[in-house]
Amino acid sequence: MAQTSPKRFPSLSLSRRDALRAVAAAAVLASCKATTDPSVAEAASTTAAPRAVPDVTLRDACRAAGIKHGAARDHYIEPEDPMLDRLMERECDVVTPENGGKWAVFQPQEGQFDWARFDASVELAKRIGAQPNWHCALWQHMGMPDYMKLPQRRMAELGIGEKAYFSAEGTLSPDNYWQRFTEMVAAVKNRYGDIFYRIDVVNEVFFWETERSHPQEQDRYGFRRGQWWVVAGGATKGPEWMDPFFHHIRKEFPSAKLVLNEFGIEIDEGWQQRKRAYLQTWLTDAVKRGVPIDGLGLQSHLMAGKPYDRDGMRKFLRAVDRLGLPVHITEFDVDERHLPRSWSRAEKDRAMAFLAAQYVGDIAGNAKLVELVWWHLRSDMNYIAREYPELHPHPSPYDEASRPLPIYEATVQALRNRNRA
Question: How far apart are CA 323 and CA 283, in angstroms?
C-alpha cells in the first residue's frame, strides 16, 4: 500500500455537470437485481434486508476476459467477518494478505516468527477455492522490522535523510543482508510450499518524488536510496542491484508469477511521468538481462479529482506489452479525497466509477491484463475508510453492507467493452 505524499498538488477543477456527464460516458452496467443472496443473508446476524446482488459478478467478467479476480484481506484488522468471507468466496480467484505477508509482521524479531496473519490469508484462499498471493518479499522503505534496517549512526555517513531506512536497533549490512534474505525466503517456502499465484518480489523501490527530496533521496535511475539499495550495492551496480532477488525467488518458487510492484504513475504531473519513464527503462533492460520477471504489478491507488494521464498511460502500457510482460492490478481502489467536499455521495460515486472504468479499459485495451485485485472488496475495510471515517468513502467495489457500488458496475462494463488492439 502506498503512503500519502507530503507534497500537495492543485486539485483538478471539475463541475457537477462534468460529474454527471461522466456517468453517461462510463456506460455503467445496470445489471444488479434487488434480491437476497442466500449465502450473505445466512451469514448476516443482524438483518435479513434485501441486498443488491449483481447478475454478472466481477469474477465472471474477469474470467470471461482471462483475468484472475481477487482482493486483499487482513485478519488482524477484520478478525472474523463471515459476510466478508462469503463475499470473497463469490468473487475471488486470488487472495492477497494485506499485511500478513510483510517481513515485519511474520518475523518481527530475528529468528522469531508469527505466522498467524499470513496463515489466515492462505487458509482463506484454500477454503474458498482461490490461490494466495505473497505481498511482499521486500519493501524498500516500510514493512521491515527494526533489525532489518540500517544502523541509525550511518545516516550522516550515507548522506540519506529518510529516517524510515534507519533504526537504533538496525543491524542490516552488506555482510548479512543476503543470508537474512535467503533464510526468510526459505522459511516462507518451508511453511507454504510453492503455492503462490503471484509474489511481489520488490515493492515501491522507485521514488515518491517531492520538492524536498528530489534529487537527494533517489539515484539517477529513479530508485529510492533505501536500505536494500544501500546493502545490495545500488550505488555501484546501478539498475542490476535488484536482479539477484528475482533469481533467488524464482529458484525457490518456480510456479509463482514474479512481479515488481509499484504505485504512483497514473497522474498527469511531472513527477509521476518521470517515475513512469524510470520504470519503463528498468523493465526494458531487465528483460534484456534475462531477469526472471513475469509481469508488472501496478498498485493502482487511483486519485479521483487528479488529472489522469490517459495518453501517457496508454503509451506506457503498450511499451510494457511489447516487452512481453503482462500487467497485474494488485491494490486497486479509488481515493475521493481530492473531489469537492460539496459534492453529493452519488456525484462522487459516479466520478470515481468513470475513472475506474477508464483505467481498467485502458489497461485491458493496451496491455495483457491478467489479474485485478482490489485493496479490499468492501469500502469500510479499505485503509482510506479507516483513516478518514468522517468521509464515509467508497474506494472499493462494495459498500459496508456488501452491496455493489457504481465503481463495481463500471468495471464490469469496462471489461466487457475492452478492445485490445
Answer: 8
